[in-house]
Write a structure and sequence with these properties.
Elements (H helix, E strand, L loop, with lengths): L1 H16 L21 H11 L5 H10 L4 H15 L9
């Protein structure tokens, strides 16, 4: 049952993501000239919905929420910094 819900949600998300013009293309179609969204507004909505990421990470953010993603990026960066070779200062 859970597998069916997960596959259905993936299919819906990716169909919306692959729609021609993207999922936010229809925002200005029905609105009159005075009620249209600016490019900055559309970009803000895209970032809020997680559409500025790729489709895979966007789906993960949509499914689980975005709260943990910044913490995970910081942990990943710290782990990578730990494994980088140490560079010694010149002249020592």
């Amino acid at each position: 049952m859970i597998l069916v819900v997960l596959v259905a949600s993936m299919a819906i998300y990716f169909l919306l993501y692959l729609a021609p013009g993207g999922p936010l293309d229809e925002l200005n179609v029905a609105a009159d000239r005075r009620a249209r969204f600016s490019e900055q507004d559309i970009q803000r909505v895209a970032e809020y919905l997680g559409l500025h990421r790729g489709p895979a990470w966007g789906f993960v953010a949509w499914l689980t929420g975005e709260d943990w993603m910044e913490t995970a990026k910081l942990i990943w960066w710290l782990w990578r910094a730990r494994s980088l070779p140490k560079v010694e200062a010149a002249g020592r």
